[in-house]
Design a protein that fits this description.
This protein is α/β, with parallel strands linked by helices. It folds into two domains: about 15-260, 3-Layer(aba) Sandwich (Aspartate Aminotransferase, domain 2); about 260-370, Aspartate Aminotransferase, domain 1. The chain is built from nine helices and 14 strands. α3 packs across α4 (about 100-110) and α7 packs parallel to α9. The radius of gyration is 21 Å and the shape is globular. It starts with a strand and ends with a helix.
Length: about 375
């Protein structure tokens, strides 16, 4: 039986191969007599799982040796506090606001230091990215923060800014939760990157942090020990009990990604999936995506149906929206309802979404438009 196509923004669909492997190993991992959830995180069995996951991720993302890979807990939302606790030194931090998640980061950081607005796209409803040359970055900034893919508003940086070209020596902090492993990363432009695993890497509960070594060792005195990047790095992510099952599932996902050809191959697929969906909507009279074409997300595609007056229908309870969602579910296309803060619809087409899922969505959208 063919599984439905799950367009959830997160927790999101996992590769079926990963789920089947995990199911087969649930009671007995590799003849150990234990499931992974039952293992000691310090036992040789789990250590081998952890080491393979760390090694495979470093290979997939081409992470340089001077960066530490940390497997933590708390999700991307907790990192909005953990990053300033480690990097702010109680000073100023500059933020580029391109959607809901960078907004959350900005507000949370203000609890631990001076959070400043370097640039914002809020005035146009977060439909573009302010050009880096327009950013107002202070000379005393301890770091500059951005969210490289905004899950809710569907805005994505197609290239990370080179802060040095802007005359800024502060490290760049990147929330890459919703497009990690979907495209290569230029680590020469990054000081720290973090993200929750539940969109492209694995289940909710695991958080990935990739941090340059020279940024370690500066945590505020009030930073909880379990969140001190230096302590976490010194203890190979096992200062406290890590999210072992999340690391295991992420490790299986990393292996799956390698079998697919790695990040470069996934980027090609993601470009093709996104282009298929955007090209159809751009030629449609019923559907509209408001984001500047230059910064449209390959991962999260928000869209709206038009009413009889031609205006976007924001309310999911509107009869046309309700009919669209009901019909989509019947067609095996799940979780297309937009985020409650913006309304409309949203299709999240992460790495695990095959091109066939996007083709099925476009076919349904076309059929629904013909009936509307």
């Amino acid at each position: 039986m063919t599984r439905p196509f799950n367009f959830s923004a997160g927790p999101a669909a996992l590769p079926e191969e990963v789920l089947r492997t995990a199911a087969a190993e649930m009671l007995d991992w590799h003849g150990s007599g234990m499931g992974v959830m039952e293992m000691s995180h310090r036992g040789k069995e789990f250590i081998s799982i952890y080491e393979a996951a760390e090694r495979d991720l470093r290979e997939l993302l081409a992470v340089p040796a001077q960066f530490k890979i940390l497997f933590m807990q708390g999700g991307g939302l907790a990192e909005n506090a953990i990053v300033p606790l480690n990097l702010s030194r109680g000073g100023a931090m500059d933020f580029v606001l391109t959607g809901s998640w960078s907004q959350k980061s900005y507000k949370e950081a203000a609890r631990y230091g001076q959070a400043r607005l370097a640039a914002s796209a809020e005035a146009d409803g977060f439909c573009h990215v302010p050009p880096p040359a327009s950013w107002q970055i202070g000379a005393d900034a301890q770091y500059v923060h951005l969210c490289s893919n905004e899950t809710i508003h569907g805005v994505e940086f197609q290239a990370l800014p080179d802060l040095r070209a802007l005359g800024c020596e502060a490290p760049l902090v990147v929330d890459f939760s919703s497009h990690v492993c979907s495209r290569p990363i230029d680590w020469s432009r990054v000081g720290l990157a973090f993200g929750g695993a539940q969109k492209n890497l694995g289940p909710a509960g695991l958080t990935l942090v990739v941090v340059r070594e020279d940024l370690l060792g500066h945590a505020l005195s009030v930073c909880p020990s379990a969140f001190d990047y230096q302590l976490v790095a010194q203890n190979q992510s096992m200062y406290n009990t890590p999210p072992t099952y999340g690391i295991y599932i992420a490790g299986l996902t990393f292996q799956w990604l390698k079998k697919q050809g790695g990040v470069a191959a996934m980027e090609e697929r993601n470009i093709a999936k996104a282009q298929l969906l955007y090209d159809y909507m751009d030629g449609s009279q019923l559907y509209v995506n408001p984001v500047d074409k230059a910064v449209r997300s390959r991962m999260n595609v928000p869209f709206f149906l038009r009413g009889d007056d031609g205006q976007p229908l924001l309310d999911p309870a509107h009869p046309r929206n309700a009919a669209f969602l009901e019909g989509a579910k019947a067609a095996g296309l799940l979780q297309l309802k937009g985020h409650k803060s913006v309304g409309g619809m949203r299709a999240s087409i992460y790495n695990a979404m095959p091109i066939e899922g996007v083709q099925a969505l476009v076919a349904y959208m076309r059929e629904f438009e013909q009936r509307a």
